[in-house]
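Model it.
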Amino acid sequence: IRDSSPEETTEPVGEVQLSFPIEEPAPAAPAISPITLKLAARDVRRVLDIQQDQSQTLTTKLNILFVANGALLPSLSISRLIVIGSVFSVAEVLGFLLSFSLLMGAFLPRQVAVTPNLEDREFLETYLALPDYEYQLQMLVNLQETYNANKQRLDDISQSLKYAAYTIWGTAAIMLVHI
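Modeled.
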C-alpha cells in the first residue's frame, strides 16, 4: 500500500497558468506574376505621361491668362478709366491685382515629385539591393505616391487658373460697364 500525502495529490491552489495569445503570421501577399507586374508598371508610367501632358496644358493656359491680364492694365490706362475716382476704378484695380495674385500663385514653382530620387544615396543602397520582383513592386508604390503628389499640385494650379480666369473676365466686364 502506498501512503500518499496531501502534498502529492493536490495541485497548488494559488497558481494560475496564463496563456499568451499566439500571434498568427501575417498572410503572405498573393503572388503577382511578372507579366502582371510589368503591365502595371507600363500603365502607371502611361498615366504619369498623361499627367505630364496636363501640366503642359496648364502652363499654356497660364501663359494665355498672363497675356489677357497684362492687356487689362494698359487698356485701363489708355482709356483713362483708372484715373477717374469711382467705385468702378477701385473694382477694376482690385480685380487686376487679384487676378495677378492668382496667376502668380499658379506660376510660382512648386516641387514636382519624381521617383526614384537619384539624389538620394539611400535609393542606391536600399532599392538596388532588392530582388527584381520586390524592386518592381516598390517602384509601383513610389510611382503611385508620385502621381498623387503631382496630382495635388496640378489640381492647385488648375484651381488658381480657374479663379484667375473668372477674375479677369469680371474685371473686363466691370471695365466695359465703366466705359
